[in-house]
Design a protein that fits this description.
The chain is mostly helical. Among the domains are: 72 residues, no CATH class; 51 residues. The protein has 6 helices and 2 strands, in the order E-E-H-H-H-H-H-H. The model has no long low-confidence stretch (mean pLDDT 81).
């Protein structure tokens, strides 16, 4: 089995014959090994550029994409729930650290603490899906509705211009002094 760099795939790994089903399992294993190595390197503090160079991804973005896909495949609902709980606990700890400043009107840093507290609360709500879904209603009028509207506008007619709407003005240029009336 020969593998080669495939810039069209996020892992950067291709097979010698992409349509060959027998070799697709080997390509999958190679991609999985690369993703495992990338995850290990990232957990050790390596940058995406370093990971791409060492593991063999065509770009740092490809290394990031492949790593994220591998992590998503590995996490089951229980793992996601645990990570969500951990992130929630961290947000709550941060919120507790600034809460006293945020609710003290005499504290000079109250407004910035309120801003940070609101951001933390908003993030916490998003993390646990507490925000109500946003409903967007898009109305596409039918042909009948459009024709009815046009008929109403035409029936209303063009408004009559009354004398009061016309202003009588005198144009003054720079070479003429303005007329002063007493």
């Amino acid at each position: 089995m020969v593998t080669w760099q495939d810039p069209t795939h996020p892992s950067g790994v291709g097979s010698d014959r992409p349509n060959n089903k027998a070799s697709s399992g080997n390509v999958h294993l190679t991609r999985q090994r690369k993703a495992d190595a990338a995850i290990s390197m990232r957990l050790s503090g390596a940058t995406w550029t370093e990971i791409a160079q060492v593991v063999g991804y065509p770009t740092p973005r490809a290394a990031l994409t492949a790593t994220e896909k591998a992590l998503v495949k590995r996490l089951d609902e229980e793992d996601k729930a645990k990570l969500r709980q951990l992130a929630g606990a961290r947000l709550e700890r941060l919120l507790r650290s600034i809460w006293n400043k945020a609710i003290d009107p005499d504290d000079p840093e109250q407004m910035s603490a309120v801003q940070r507290a609101r951001e933390l609360i908003d993030r916490h709500a998003k993390l646990f899906g507490l925000d109500a879904p946003t409903e967007i209603v898009v109305h596409n009028p039918t042909k009948t509705e459009l024709e009815s509207w046009v008929l109403k506008v035409v029936a209303a007619g063009v408004p009559q211009v009354e004398e009061e709407d016309i202003f009588d003005v005198e144009v003054v240029t720079d070479d003429q002094p303005p007329a002063i009336s007493a």
